Structure formats: structure tokens, C-alpha cells
Amino acid sequence: MTWHALVLFAPLVVMLAVAAAIDIRSRRIPNALTGLLALTGLLQSFTAGHTVSPWQSILGLLTGVGLLLALFAIGAVGGGDLKLLAAAGAWLGPRLVFQVFLVEAILGMLIVLITCAIHGRLRLLMNNSMLLATNIAHVNQLGTDHVRETGESSRSIDRPLPYAVPIFLATLVILSFGRGGI
Question: CB within 8 A of 26, min separation 6: which ones?
Fold first, then answer.
């Protein structure tokens, strides 16, 4: 990443780092932070040193929402995660936010696998993944079956991943290697 690009994207990188730190600690991403990130992304698109045009900023925001909407609908990601990717899209535009989504999906998968392995829940993750793959039409029932069978709330394992972390890391990767400067 060039120094020029680093300066232009500094607010995005800093706010994503803050979101990742907060998400690690509390498993929540504040609306004020995602709102500020989206607003600054839209506003910067109107400045002389913009990262994307206003139209690209709006499309990036909508792309970020669209990429996670189905995952949000089935409860795989939270609303803060969806808003964070959308807000990053306001800075990156649709093409780069899509690239961030692809990279963060891979990074997120690796983080979840490592986290589950460390906590001894890898077998449960694999079993649940197989159930989901073979019976996708009954996604909502899977969570309630786990509670009935084990007596433990699935809430404790719903989000082993603070989703802001792979978004932050993927954004760094895309800005460093995928963009090639401005």
C-alpha cells in the first residue's frame, strides 16, 4: 500500500481495528461505531481525496449488506457484523468489499476451526456442519435440537468468532495486496 493510500484509508483501518478490539472483548459492535464508519465513508466520497466516488460508496454499502443478509437471516452473523461490512463497503466500493468478503470468509473459517479445536468443540462443529449440509431446510430446528439433546444453550457456541477480526484482517490484506495503491 502506498503512503497516499495509507493516509486515505487510515480512518477505515483505525475504526475497523477499534471494532475488532471491542468485538473480541464484548462480542458486540456498537451502532455508533458502524454508523460513524458508514457516514465517514459516504462523506469522504465527496472530497477531492476520495477512495471511491459517491455512487461507488453507496453501491459498496449496499453490497456489504447484500453479502451478509442471508447469513444474518439464519443467525450465522449478528446485525453489527452486517453493519460493519456495509460501512466498510462505503469506503471500499462494491468490488473491494466483495474481495474483503471472500478473504474474510476464509480467514473466519480458519479462526473458527482453530478456536473450536482449542476449546475441544471441533467435533461438535463438524457434526453441526454435517447436519446443516444434509438438512439445510431445517436450519432453525437444528439450534433447538441441540438445546433439547444436550441441555446446554447453543448461545455459548453460536459466535465463537468475533466477526470484526476477519473483516479487519481481510481489509488489511486487500488494501495491501489486492489494490496495488490508488
Answer: none
DSSP string over 5-23: HHHHHHHHHHHHHHHHHHH
Indicate the domain borders of the chain.
3-119+160-178
Burial zone of 71 (CB within 10 Å; 0-12 exposed, 13-18 middle, 19+ buried): middle
**CA 74 to CA 68: how far, in whole Å?**
10
Written as nine digits, the cell of 3 is 503512503
| pTM across the whole model | 0.79
Could you report how far apart the first and last alpha carbons of the chain are, in Å?
8
Question: HEC states along 23-44?
Answer: HHHHCCCCHHHHHHHHHHHHHH
Look at residues 116, 136, 135 and name the one whose alpha carbon lies nearest to residue 125. 116
Distance (Å, rounded) from C-alpha 122 to C-alpha 90? 36
Give per-10-residue mean pLDDT for the chain (182 aa).
Answer: 78 96 94 97 94 97 96 89 97 97 92 83 78 61 48 45 92 80 46
